[in-house]
C-alpha cells in the first residue's frame, strides 16, 4: 500500500510564528505567499494561517490590489 499524503503547505500560521500583528501592505513578498500563481487568495487550509491573520491578509491583499501593488486575478 502506498500512502501518498503530501504536506507542502505550512501547518502553523507563519505570521504568528514571526510575531507579526499587522501585515504591512507594502510587503508584497509576504502577501504573495498567500496568493496562488493566478493571484487568487489561497484558502486557509493551504496557507496554514490562523483565522485572525487570514482575515487581515485577505484584507491587505484586496487593499494592495486597489493600490496597484498587487495584481488582480488572471492578470
Ligand atoms: Zn496567526
List its salient traits.
40% helix; binds zinc ion; single chain; mainly alpha; 75 residues; 30s Ribosomal Protein S18
Describe the SSE topology:
Blueprint: H1 14-17, H2 28-32, H3 44-47, H4 51-67
Bound molecules: zinc ion.
Zinc ion binds next to helix 1 and helix 4.
| Helix/strand structural class | mainly alpha
Identify the CATH homologous superfamily of the domain at 23-67: Ribosomal protein S18
Name the beta content range. under 5%
- CATH architecture descriptor text of the domain at 23-67: Irregular
Got a strand count?
0
Structural description of this entry:
This protein has a domain at 23-67: Ribosomal protein S18 (30s Ribosomal Protein S18, Irregular). By secondary structure, the protein is mostly helical. The radius of gyration is 13 Å and the shape is globular. The protein is built from 4 helices and no strands. The model has no long low-confidence stretch (mean pLDDT 84). The protein has helices at 14-17, 28-32, 44-47, 51-67. The chain binds zinc ion. The site of zinc ion has 7 residues, from helix 1 and helix 4.
Quick overview:
40% of the residues lie in helices and 0% in strands. With 75 residues, it is mainly α. It has a domain at 23-67: Irregular (30s Ribosomal Protein S18).
Amino acid at each position: 500500500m502506498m500512502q501518498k499524503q503530501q504536506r507542502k503547505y505550512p501547518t502553523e500560521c507563519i505570521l504568528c510564528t514571526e510575531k507579526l500583528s499587522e501585515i504591512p501592505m507594502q510587503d508584497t513578498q509576504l502577501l504573495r505567499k498567500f496568493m496562488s500563481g493566478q493571484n487568487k487568495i489561497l484558502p486557509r487550509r493551504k496557507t496554514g494561517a490562523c483565522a485572525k491573520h487570514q482575515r487581515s491578509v485577505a484584507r491587505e491583499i484586496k487593499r494592495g490590489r486597489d493600490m496597484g501593488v498587487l495584481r488582480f486575478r488572471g492578470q
